[in-house]
Specification:
Layout (H helix, E strand, L loop, with lengths): L2 H13 L2 H22 L5 H17 L1 H14 L3 E5 L2 H14 L4 E4 L3 H5 L2 H7 L3 E4 L2 H9 L15 H5 L2 H6 L6 H18 L2 E4 L3 E3 L4 E6 L3 H7 L3 E7 L3 E2 L5 H12 L7 E5 L13 E7 L3 H5 L15 H5 L1 H6 L10 H11 L17 H5 L6 H14 L5 H14 L2 H5 L2 H17 L13 H9 L3
Parallel strand pairs: 1-10, 2-3, 2-4, 4-7, 5-8, 7-10
Antiparallel strand pairs: 5-6, 6-9
Helix pairs in contact: 2-13, 17-19
The structure holds iron/sulfur cluster.
Iron/sulfur cluster binds next to helix 15.
């Protein structure tokens, strides 16, 4: 079935799933309250947002220079850089490292880029077990589902449904408390951390002037995954840079406030290479995989490249009326929600995700919620324009658009036919797209223009 059609069908069913709605509304309302609290730590939040936005825009406009600066500083501390043009390159390199480390299992912390390259499936096919160590991701792995949300992967699940999952069910009952569930997972994972040969993490930021990888988290699983195994592989998109360690304060606090409503996340690690000679702990080897996967294609688009400033806080999804109704999985994309609809058509042009740009009411809440000032709803409009220009719209849509444009560009044509004819045409041609459950708008008998003229006696 065509991807676009699949999205329409699953949105129809999920929007009327009352249990799903109840859980999402509850979790998002908790987030909204917490985020307000988290944001109150800023004396001038707009100034912090402007600073973050300007910094990320500087990075995007000079990405080549910052990448080279980062690479040279990272290498100085003994780290190894792998440039991966696409998912296949990244997978091949990770498999190579796994083979040379005689690796049979990997502990992995939360990373959307590993979802983007489909890492788990690829490694399992190569007989390497991958254990998700973030609680939400662990739950999703048990469920056999991809993450539902870029920050809270199991946002759509109740504690009862989690306790019912096959592995959890062995040792828990449905009355289990969230603390008991967390304890159960902690016990399951402890040995895995100690015995894994490789730890895979994402990276929240890359600091160009120190050559460091920054990880922010709340569970300590990323630190454990980085520090226990002999080999640490970090993987992220090439856009994750910030120029200096002096920029980190604003990004760490903005991400915590907008992502989870905290003042700061519980664990924040700045990792500069593998274990040094005078250090006792840490991995013997550290690799950083810098993934392009068409980010340079997005970078080439002057209007849409701002999307690369995203720090993946998930705030735009939490305020989006579409996301709240249809949920994260309906997008059928690694990155869901408003920013996912902007970037997916560019990250995976061969998979035609342009229809996601229409999954927006254009209310602008996403733009207002963004800590780095990305004008998300405008970028969706640019995508829609490109969608049409690249010939992805249907013949019927093109025909509607032609008639609409012809009428809109000339008053005499717009007034032709009167309200009766226009309402008939609307019902004939737009009823299906408008949706069975929505009342069609009616064209009034006298247009604004006619009323204006009449009131002022203009002939
Ligand atoms: S676009 Fe902005 S609000 Fe949305 S996830 Fe990225 S940083 Fe957060």
């Amino acid at each position: 079935m065509e991807k676009r059609q699949q999205v329409i069908l699953s949105s129809e069913s999920i929007a009327f799933d009352k249990e799903h709605r109840k859980i999402i509304n509850y979790n998002i309302s908790k987030y909204i309250g917490a985020a307000q609290q988290g944001k109150s730590q800023f004396v001038n939040i707009n100034l912090a947002k402007q600073r973050a936005s300007a910094t990320k825009n500087k990075v995007i406009e000079n990405l080549d220079k910052f990448l080279i600066e980062f690479e040279s500083n990272f290498i100085k501390k003994g780290g190894k850089i792998i440039w991966a043009q696409n998912a296949e390159d990244a997978i091949a390199e990770i498999k190579k490292i796994a083979k040379s480390s005689s690796c049979n299992h990997i502990v992995k912390s939360k990373s959307m880029v590993t979802e983007e390259i489909n890492l788990n499936k690829e490694l399992v096919a190569d007989s390497v077990e991958v254990i998700e160590t973030d609680l939400g991701e662990y739950i999703q792995q048990l469920s056999g589902e991809p993450p539902y949300h870029i920050v809270t992967p199991a946002m759509h699940k109740s504690k009862e449904s989690i306790a019912e999952l096959p592995n959890a069910k062995k040792q828990t009952d449905s009355n289990v408390s969230p603390n008991e569930l967390a304890e159960f997972v902690r016990n399951e994972l402890r040995d895995k951390f100690i015995t894994a040969q490789i730890g895979v993490t994402g990276a929240n930021y890359l600091i160009a002037d120190t050559g460091s990888v920054v990880l922010t988290e709340n569970e300590g699983n990323a630190i454990n995954g980085m520090a226990f195994p002999k080999v640490h592989i970090s993987i992220c998109g090439i856009e994750k840079l910030i120029p200096s360690i002096y920029d980190l304060d604003v990004f760490i606090t903005l991400l915590a406030s907008f992502g989870t409503g905290q003042q700061i996340t519980t664990y924040n690690s700045i990792i500069s290479g593998p274990k040094q000679n005078d250090e006792d702990d840490g991995p013997d080897e550290m690799y950083l995989i810098l993934l392009d996967n068409n980010r340079t294609g997005l970078l080439a688009l002057a209007e849409q490249r701002r999307a690369l400033a995203c720090i993946k806080c998930g705030a735009c999804s939490n305020v989006c009326p579409v996301y709240k109704n249809v949920g994260g999985h309906t997008y059928g994309a690694v990155y869901g929600g408003p920013i996912g609809s902007v970037i997916m058509p560019h990250l995976k042009p061969e998979e035609n995700y342009y229809h996601l740009s229409s999954a927006s009411t254009m209310c602008g809440k996403c733009t207002a919620s963004c800590p780095v000032g990305i004008d998300i709803h405008k970028l969706l409009l640019y995508n829609r324009r490109d969608f049409v220009a690249k010939g992805h719209s249907t013949k019927t849509e093109n025909l509607y658009r032609f008639f609409w444009k012809t009428a809109m560009l000339k008053r005499s044509k717009m007034d032709k036919g009167g309200a009766k004819v226009k309402n008939f045409m609307m019902r004939q041609f737009f009823r299906k797209q408008w949706g069975e459950r929505r009342e069609m708008p009616e064209v009034v008998t006298k247009s604004f223009n006619q009323q204006w003229r009449e009131q002022r006696g203009i002939k």
